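User: Peroxidase. Structure?
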Amino acid sequence: MASFLDSRIGFVPCMLLVLLMIVSIRSICVRASDPPLTLDYYKKTCPTVLEIVRKEMECAVLSDPRNAALILRLHFHDCFVQGCDGSVLLDDTITLQGEKKAPNNNHALKGFRIIDKIKNVLESECPAIVSCADILTVAARDAVLLVGGPYWDVPLGRKDSKTAGYELSNTNLATADDGLLSIISKFINQGLSVTDMVALSGAHTIGMARCVNFRDRIYGDFAITSEMNPASETYLKNLKSMCPPTVGEDNNESAMDYVTPDLFDNSYYQILLRGEGILNSDQELYSSILGVETKKLVQQYAENSIAFFEQFSASMVKLGNITNPETYVDGEVRRNCRFVNT
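Assistant: Predicted structure:
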């Protein structure tokens, strides 16, 4: 039995390597060229764009620190579906099915009114100049910075799509119960590496998770991974009190980082080291038998916040550079982020 297990564990890295090679080839085919984005894109046409976005985000985060996580999640869900093209912001119409009501987005995405407000200010200052996709990308950077996270320069020049990807929202986005290989494949399909995946998962250091997304975890292997020390027992008891084992109270929420829920730091990774990740998909990064590389990265970021900040910044630039090539042929600058121009 022991020899079989040893051989099986030895086989895991080979399986993972093959998967990464296959998906990487697919990714190269999809992402063959760099996006036409520049840091000074609005220098002449709307020089105050960054100041306006920052001011509006300061007001939003000051009114409620949770707004930072809402905007960061919106940006992520936008970029993983058709690229960072503002498609997640589109409302349903008679002729267009948006992404907001897709199963992976429904009840999970908020913060749209914050983007609406920023857009309204920019339309007064620079009419028909700044795309909703760019607004969301800059707002996500500022959201992180305003709750203690790192700064990074945001290349600009995205166009807004005239289409949305309802079905892609169901297939491209990782779910709370995805296994590690599934999560890795979804990131690599976007041109993002395993390192990017672990670093970007650190965004869960802010924000909330709904009961429907952590029910299986707390009534599953949470007790095993956390080894049920007294503190973990209390934490688990509290989670179960708000999230019953059967259907009900699905939208009750708990912080994904219960230590510093409104501060962007590396405590998320320290929670994973204790086996207390609230989502299966999070804890898989450290506890999965397949997570040879991801476990090392979790340990590194838990011990070194500077290393986490540096990699998160670099990975966020890569995420923001996932573009929708169609928008450079048939894209636009929406006057209202919720609707295609008429």
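Residues 115 and 283 are 32 Å apart (CA to CA). The mean pLDDT is 90.
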